[in-house]
Write a structure and sequence with these properties.
Blueprint: E1 3-4, H1 21-27, E2 29-35, E3 38-43, H2 49-59, E4 62-68, H3 70-81, H4 88-95, H5 110-117, H6 120-135, E5 138-145, E6 150-156, E7 159-162, H7 171-181, E8 193-201, E9 204-215, E10 218-226, H8 235-238, H9 242-251, E11 257-262, H10 269-279, E12 287-291, E13 302-305, H11 314-321, E14 328-331, H12 337-348, E15 352-357, H13 362-372, H14 376-382, E16 383-395, E17 400-402, H15 407-413, H16 417-421, E18 426-428, E19 439-450, H17 453-460, H18 465-474, H19 480-489, H20 495-501
Parallel strand pairs: 1-4, 3-4, 11-15, 11-16, 12-13, 12-14, 14-15
Antiparallel strand pairs: 2-3, 5-6, 5-10, 6-7, 8-9, 9-10, 16-19, 17-18
């Protein structure tokens, strides 16, 4: 019997109901053609009559056998049926064959859901969605149930994109599979749940933070992708301008005081803080963090996870941290007066304190602390500096082309006539590399407020935000929008992108 060569194997998988890749690997065979009610297979052992009879009985058709090399067969099984290469369309088609409509109103028990979620096609489908999210560099994977559809979206470079959508009838099985992976209660569909998944994807370990919440048409699931390899622990690569880099580097090497980073959710605050800690993470420094949640694990840093269920809040945890003799403390977020006051006391007693606030600009961090009821003289004597930041998408290098921006855009960003004359503007025309968005990757834009004598004086006087902004303008401090405009002039990003993430001052 002639042995098939590797070129004789099909380019596309031949789909048969309930035929698993595990069975093919175990019995070392693969389908190579299907026509006229006849199935052709390649087998490493053409005399394995037990497998041949099992296939004939299962599919009620004649099975024709050709000899194949075992290594070639296993390679073909992985290429055609393995999770890493099988197309999402094929997996969805395969998964939909034996899964029937499971509306939220139906009273299927948890065991039935668990059985469905443990079926090989559903497992492959969820694995493929996760793999796609990682390959595309998504920060979040959204599974959203609506009345007539089950929507899958990935957040890539801060913007949501629709993906290949599985049929609505697979909704319960897919969501149950994700909940099983995250060790959540699949029978509980009325309350929000949070969990974590650790997977090896594309030869690297990646964490996924899973959140479920009940909606009108089923549970909505969001998976935050925490890929440590995507974490850039280099201040310059994050996007710091050279003049700010030296000032900020000096700031984070101070022996004590408080450094605040501000911005909305998803503005890169965690990355900036982790990068700051990695720069000062030496054998001489003991660093302790208190986070909700711990997003990335940093070697040599003592990281603590906040847990309200057991009473471990930011305030309670911070009280205990100071008794651990730390040099540097990171508090994930200052949310209330109690946490703010303990953090400031820690900074006053010889610790370098890092934390975040959700404010629109750097000045807003000072006024927020005042609004919380923190004494102004404490703020003026402990805060070393405030860094506000946003993330802007960078122009795709593969399809970067010059263009002339609209006058309204130039006016909106505050461009001067001489700047426009001396600037060549770029945009991405869209290509396969950037999924036709014109953007690939992100960089940060910053607004830095240093605490010099003039600012300390104004804060101690309890001056309002307007006066502090006025003083910042007098000193020529660069705003978020001005820093974004600088990156436009350098051909890094576009005016619409900067306007999208910044507010008018």
């Amino acid at each position: 019997m002639k042995v098939l060569s590797s070129s004789d194997y099909p380019k596309e998988p031949i789909i048969l109901d309930n035929l698993s890749d595990q069975f093919m690997r175990q019995c070392r065979f693969i389908p190579i053609a299907l026509h006229d009610h006849k199935l052709q297979i390649a087998m490493a052992d053409p005399n394995d009559f037990y497998t041949i009879e099992a296939l004939e009985h299962a599919y009620e058709m004649e099975v024709e056998v050709s000899a194949g090399n075992e290594a070639d067969i296993l390679d073909a099984v992985e290429r055609l049926y393995g999770t890493g290469t099988q197309s999402i369309e094929t997996i969805i088609e395969e998964a939909g064959r034996d899964v029937y409509d499971l509306s939220e109103e139906s009273q299927e028990d948890a065991e039935h859901l668990k059985d469905l979620a443990s079926e090989a096609p559903i497992i492959r489908l969820v694995n493929r969605l996760i793999l796609n999210a990682v390959e595309l560099g998504a920060s979040d994977l959204h599974l959203e149930p609506f009345e007539t559809e089950f929507r899958v979206r990935f957040r890539i470079d801060g913007v949501l994109h629709d993906m290949e959508t599985p049929p609505k009838r697979l909704q319960s099985a897919i969501i149950s599979r994700v909940k099983i992976m995250a060790n959540l209660d699949i029978a509980e569909r009325r309350l929000p749940q949070d969990g974590r998944i650790k997977l090896k994807v594309a030869n690297r370990e990646i964490d996924f933070r899973v959140s479920t919440i009940p909606t009108l048409f089923g549970e909505s699931v969001v998976m935050r992708v925490l890929d440590r390899e995507m974490l850039i622990l280099d201040l310059e690569h994050i996007g710091f301008p050279q003049e700010l880099l030296s000032e900020y580097t000096r700031l984070i090497t101070q022996p004590y005081g408080m450094i605040l980073v501000t911005g909305p959710t998803g503005s890169g605050k965690t990355s900036t803080l982790y990068t700051s800690l990695s720069k000062i993470n030496t054998p001489e420094n003991k660093i302790i963090t208190l986070e909700d949640p711990v997003e990335y694990y940093l070697s040599g840093v003592n990281q603590i996870q906040v847990s309200r269920k057991i009473g471990l809040t930011f305030a309670n945890g911070l009280r205990s941290i100071v008794r651990q003799d730390p040099d540097v403390i990171l508090v994930g977020e200052i949310r209330d007066k109690e946490t703010a006051e303990i953090a400031i006391q820690s900074a006053l007693t010889g610790h370098l304190m890092f934390s975040t606030l959700h404010t629109n600009d750097a000045v807003g961090a000072i006024t927020r602390l005042m609004d919380m009821g923190v004494e102004s003289f404490l703020i003026s004597s402990t805060v070393l500096g405030v860094l506000a930041q946003r993330l802007v998408r960078t122009i795709c290098p593969n399809c970067k082309t010059p263009y002339e921006p609209d006058e309204k855009l130039l006016k909106a960003i505050g461009a001067e006539a001489d700047e426009i004359e001396n600037t060549r503007f770029y945009m991405g025309s869209g290509c396969e590399m950037c999924r036709n968005t014109g953007f690939k990757g992100r960089t940060a834009i910053f607004e830095y407020l240093p605490m010099d004598a003039d600012f300390r004086r104004e804060i101690a006087r309890q001056s309002d935000g307007e006066r502090l902004k006025e003083l910042a303008g007098e000193k020529g401090l660069s705003t978020l929008r001005q820093n974004g405009w600088d990156k436009v002039k350098r051909g890094i990003t576009t005016i619409p992108e900067v306007l999208r993430v910044t507010l008018e001052k």
